[in-house]
Specification:
alpha/beta, 3 domains, Rossmann fold, six-stranded parallel sheet, 587 residues, 21 strands
C-alpha cells in the first residue's frame, strides 16, 4: 500500500519530471509532504501562485514537456488561473495539481456558495482553459486521471491540465497494483492531398512558407526548414517560432503582422502561394482584415485543430493533420525550380526596409528603444535565453528589432498578453535551460506586478539580467489615450493618477546589483556591464516617454469619424504611393 500523494510524485518522476514549482498551503498538505520526501524531485518555492504558474508555463514552452505546479485550495488555485489561460491560448503543456477541501465538505449539489475551508469549485472555473480538469473523488481512479491528464497535455494540440485533489484523497492509502489505467484512442485524420500540394508548388512562381508554433511543438521544425531550403522557398516566422532561424539566414524574411517587419508584410502580399504550417493566424499576424492576408496567393493551411482552420474564410486547401504528417507529405514533393527573381525581390525588400536604420539617435536624449534593442542584440551571444515582456512596447519593439543568432531561445506569452509575466517567466525559462543566462526586457509598470519574485531569483542564484524600460507609467496606454481620446489620460502616468516606485531602490533591498542607462551615448558600455558576471542584475533604462512603435498597421480615422483599416502592406509611417507600388510590383 502507498499513500496516494506519494503515488502522484512517483508518477511524475516516472514521466521525467525533475522539478515541481510550489507554494505550500494547508489544502495541499499531503501533496506538499510527499513532494518534500521524494528524493528524485526538487521543489522550487515561489512567493505568489500567479508567478508560480507563469514559471510553469515558461518551462513548458521552453521544453515542450509539461511544467508542473503545486498550489493549495481556494485562493491558491484561483491565483494560478491567468497563467493557465495563457498556456491554453499558446498550446503550452502544463500540469497543475491543487489541493481541495475534503470530500465530505464539498458543496457539490447543495446550492450553497461554500462549505469547506477555502473551498472553491476550481474545476468549473478552469474547464474552459484546460484540456482536462477533474476533481479526484475516488482514490482508486488516481492512475487513470494522472495518465489521462499527462496524455492530454502532451498529445494532439498540447495544453494545460489540472488535477484537483481533496485532502482526504491525498492522504488515502491505495494498492498501486490494483489501479485502473488509461488507454488513449488514436485520432483519425483525413488524407493529405499530396498531389494537389505538388501541383500548387510546381506551378507557383512566388511561394512562401509561414512556420507556426504547431510545427515547433511537434518537434519537426528542422525538417520543414531543410525542405524549404532545398526547394528555394522563403520563410517567415511568428513570435512563437522567432528563434528557429537566425536573422542573417538568407532564406529568412521576418515576422509579418500589425507590428511586424515592413518587408515581411510586403513579401506576404506579393506571394502567389502561401503555405501556413501550424499557425492559427491570430489577428496580430493577419492585421485587422484577415481576408486580406496574402490576398494574391493560393493559401494552404495545415493545423491539427480544425476549428483554427475553419475560422479563416479564404483558405484554398485546408489540411487537418499533425504537423509531422504534413511535413512528411511536403517532403515527398521535390525538384522544384529555383526562382531567382522572387528570392532577389525578397532579399531586396529585407535590405531596404530594416526596422532600425543603424543611426544612433540624440546621444544625450532619453534612450531610444530601437537603439537599445539593436545594441542589446549586438552583444547577446548564441547561448542566451531572451524573455521579452508579454505586452507593451517591451515586447513589441524587442520582437520588431531583434536580430536572433542561431542557438538563442526567445519566447513570451503574447497570446494572452498579460502584464506581470516577465520576471516569473524568466525564472521558468532559466530553469528550463539549466540556468543559462537569461535576459529579460520588461516595462516598469508590468515589472511591479510580480516583483516579489526577485527573492526567488536571489535564492536560486539565477543569472537573470533584467532590463527595465522606465517611462514612468504605462506607455502603451498613454499612446492609446493620446491617439484615441485626444490625449485625455486616466491612470496611465503620474499626471493621471499612477505612480511607480524606483526599481533600483527596490532591487537594492533584495541585494541585487543595479545600473542605470540615462542616455543613448552610454548604451554600449552599460549593456556590457549589465551582461557581465553570473549574478542577477537590474538595469533601469530611461526611455523616451513619447515612444511610438513603428512600422505599424493601423486604422485611419476619416473626416466623418469612421475608422478604416489599412491593408497589411500599408504600414505607418506611410510610404509614397510610387514606392509602395514598386514594393508591391508582383501583386
Amino acid at each position: 500500500m502507498i499513500r496516494l500523494a506519494d503515488y502522484v510524485m512517483n508518477f511524475l518522476v516516472s514521466h521525467g519530471v525533475k522539478q515541481v514549482f510550489l507554494l505550500p498551503g494547508g489544502g495541499a498538505m499531503h501533496l506538499n509532504d510527499a513532494l518534500g520526501r521524494c528524493e528524485n524531485l526538487q521543489h522550487i518555492s515561489f512567493l505568489h501562485e500567479q508567478a508560480l504558474a507563469i514559471a510553469v508555463e515558461a518551462y513548458g514552452q521552453h521544453t515542450n514537456t509539461p511544467g508542473v505546479g503545486l498550489v493549495t485550495s481556494g485562493p491558491g488555485s484561483t491565483n494560478a488561473i491567468t497563467a493557465v489561460a495563457a498556456g491554453y491560448i499558446d498550446s503550452t503543456p502544463m500540469f497543475i495539481l491543487s489541493g481541495q477541501a475534503k470530500r465530505s465538505d464539498l458543496k457539490t449539489g447543495t446550492g450553497v456558495r461554500q462549505m469547506g475551508s477555502q473551498e472553491v469549485d476550481i474545476v468549473s472555473m478552469v474547464s474552459c482553459i484546460t484540456k482536462y480538469a477533474v476533481t479526484v473523488l475516488e482514490p482508486e481512479k488516481i492512475r487513470y486521471h494522472l495518465e489521462r491528464a499527462w496524455h492530454e497535455a502532451t498529445s494532439g494540440r498540447m495544453g494545460p491540465v489540472w488535477l484537483d485533489v481533496p485532502l482526504d484523497v491525498q492522504g488515502a492509502m491505495i494498492d498501486e497494483d490494483a489501479l485502473e489505467g488509461y488507454c488513449p484512442s488514436s485520432p483519425v485524420f483525413p488524407e493529405i492531398p499530396v498531389s494537389q500540394l505538388a501541383e500548387l508548388l510546381h506551378a507557383s512562381e512566388r511561394p512562401l512558407l509561414l512556420i507556426g508554433n504547431g510545427v515547433k511543438l511537434a518537434g519537426c521544425s528542422d525538417r520543414l526548414i531543410a525542405w524549404a531550403k532545398n526547394n528555394h522557398i522563403p520563410m517567415l516566422l511568428t513570435w512563437k517560432t522567432a528563434d528557429l532561424l537566425a536573422h542573417d539566414d538568407p532564406m529568412y524574411f521576418g515576422f509579418p503582422g500589425i507590428m511586424g517587419a515592413r518587408y515581411a508584410n510586403f513579401i506576404v502580399q506579393n506571394a502567389d502561394l502561401l503555405i501556413i504550417a501550424g499557425s492559427r493566424l491570430d489577428p496580430s499576424l493577419t492585421a485587422f482584415k484577415s481576408e486580406d492576408f496574402g490576398r494574391n496567393a493560393k493559401k494552404v493551411m495545415a493545423d491539427i485543430d480544425e476549428a483554427e482552420i475553419r475560422k479563416i474564410k479564404n483558405i484554398d486547401v485546408r489540411i487537418v493533420a499533425p504537423a509531422e504528417r504534413f511535413v512528411a507529405a511536403l517532403e515527398t514533393v521535390s525538384g522544384l525550380l529555383e526562382r531567382p527573381g522572387w528570392l532577389a525581390h525578397c532579399r531586396s525588400l529585407k535590405a531596404k526596409y530594416p526596422v532600425f536604420d543603424g543611426v544612433l539617435k540624440e546621444p544625450a536624449g532619453p534612450v531610444d528603444l530601437y537603439c537599445f534593442t539593436d545594441e542589446l542584440f549586438n552583444q547577446l551571444v548564441a547561448t542566451d535565453v531572451i524573455v521579452p515582456e508579454s505586452s507593451g512596447a517591451a515586447g513589441e519593439v524587442t520582437y520588431q528589432g531583434m536580430k536572433i543568432k542561431q542557438g538563442q531561445k526567445v519566447k513570451n506569452a503574447a497570446g494572452l498578453g498579460s502584464m506581470g509575466f516577465g520576471l516569473p517567466y524568466a525564472i521558468g525559462a532559466s530553469l528550463a535551460h539549466n540556468r543559462r543566462r537569461t535576459v529579460l526586457i520588461n516595462g516598469d509598470g508590468a515589472f511591479q506586478m510580480n516583483i516579489q519574485e526577485l527573492e526567488t531569483v536571489v535564492r536560486l542564484g539565477l543569472p537573470i539580467k533584467m532590463f527595465i524600460l522606465d517611462n514612468a507609467g504605462y506607455g502603451s496606454i498613454v499612446t492609446t489615450q493620446r491617439n484615441m481620446f485626444n490625449g485625455f489620460k486616466v491612470g496611465s502616468d503620474a499626471e493621471s493618477g499612477l505612480t511607480l516606485p524606483d526599481v533600483c531602490r527596490q532591487a537594492q533591498a533584495y541585494g541585487i546589483r543595479t545600473l542605470t542607462i540615462a542616455d543613448n551615448a552610454s548604451l554600449k558600455a552599460k549593456i556590457a556591464e549589465t551582461l557581465s558576471g553570473v549574478d542577477p542584475v537590474i538595469c533601469k533604462v530611461c526611455v523616451t516617454p513619447n515612444h511610438v512603435t513603428m512600422p505599424k498597421v493601423q486604422a485611419q480615422r476619416l473626416p466623418d469619424g469612421r475608422m478604416v483599416s489599412k491593408p497589411l502592406e500599408d504600414m505607418f509611417p506611410y510610404l509614397p504611393e510610387e514606392e509602395l507600388r514598386q514594393a508591391m510590383r508582383f501583386s
